[in-house]
């Protein structure tokens, strides 16, 4: 039973269904459902679970149209429901159309091929099997567009973009891109067939698949992506200026939607380059951390003091900052190491940082100024964004300068930065839930990190895991939707498609991260 509960967990992008929830979930639902009835003792089901999990992650953005579920028939509380649904073999794949009736037992997929791409195409077919009457409410049209409708867009201004994917008859790319963009507003995606001469000739499209974009201002042109693949088309479209993720949380939080007050914030908008890191963000983050977050602790002792000392060690030795800031951190470190105290009142640290050092010209900004971490409203982005950025910088610096931590308590430890971050996050980071999640990830795999290079990749991988979990959450800034990063515009060579599934080229990611998070890529713009 321990294992039964473990094959799929709450954090997986699948809906975990049971005897008490299956019927009410799949019947009369506004979306279609594809449910895997499995058994936790069936070896094949166990081996298959990574594929199912990967599939669910891959089609997470389709969930307003079709959703993925699992139900464990080996769980005692599910015995009855599996009997009622006549599940004889594991795994059984059942799909339910949207608005399924109350006595619906679903249709079984009997194909022998259960590879991710095949099942994903099955999902598209399931959607297209709906009629006009029972079409899932939020699913856009998936059939080819009429050439007249498309050509009428030429030269016309519009409220939003229209993207057109032109493809061969047996291709699924167009429909997959349409579904990938379901949770985004500001854009409509349509598809057309390469056999539609009216379109291909007028738009001068000679190879398929190809993408074409009609801009709101009436201009139009071919969409230039490094590879003509689903992932590249979808990523490009999601990043168009003005295209935003819809708020999916059931209750709209007024703080988190753009409202009048936010326009003021937008007025002070600072232009920035997404391919750069900004010193202003890093210094603002350090200021907030030292003077606000830590300052809520009266005294530091025991574990807290260790966590703080390690943190100061790592930043003093590795942070590629401006001279007065680095000096300030070094002086703080010297002071901490020279004091063999078990317990330090935080006011003493504040006094040192704010007053004593200032006299000698060592100075850290005393206000926040977010640049690439600025949010579309006051409550979004900012500090947590700067903290991720700081730790990516530190892992990259450690890989570049392996001797930087020599003669410190952290010397020769490939996990030095990661373990320091872990201690900081669990001990001090104000978002406690975040800390719990991070600790769970750290416990699972941080100890397997064996080199400074692996540490860079570990943090990148985990950050993407967090991005994936938070996509569409309330804390997501609609202007900066959570994506798997680096996006193909930042690093085209980091991405590849294998058997229709996006894969990372990790050696390229490694090279990219070290360059992106290098001292040379930190812009001094806006740092006062
Ligand atoms: P961030 O995710 O903060 O990223 C900042 C910048 O880093 C991005 O703009 C991008 O340039 C770059 N970047 C993005 N992904 C990667 C990557 N994979 N590798 C390298 N660089 C990357 N919020 C919650 O609501 N729930 C949580 O459980 C949660 N856990 C957190 C745990 C930690 C350790 C931290 C530091 C933050 C956590 N947060 C959590 C906050 C959340 O992750 C974001 O920081 C916050 O929502 C702001 O998001 P953002 O859009 O500014 O981008």
From TrEMBL:
GO terms for molecular function: flavin-dependent sulfhydryl oxidase activity; protein disulfide isomerase activity. Its cofactor is FAD. GO terms for biological process: protein folding. GO terms for cellular component: extracellular space; Golgi membrane. Residues 376-485 form the ERV/ALR sulfhydryl oxidase domain. It comes from the Eukaryota. It is an enzyme of class 1 (oxidoreductase). Its EC number is 1.8.3.2. It catalyses: 2 R'C(R)SH + O2 = R'C(R)S-S(R)CR' + H2O2. Keywords: Disulfide bond, FAD, Flavoprotein, Glycoprotein, Membrane, Oxidoreductase, Signal, Transmembrane, Transmembrane helix. Residues 1-128 form the Thioredoxin domain. Belongs to the quiescin-sulfhydryl oxidase (QSOX) family. Catalyzes the oxidation of sulfhydryl groups in peptide and protein thiols to disulfides with the reduction of oxygen to hydrogen peroxide. This is Sulfhydryl oxidase. The gene is QSOX2.
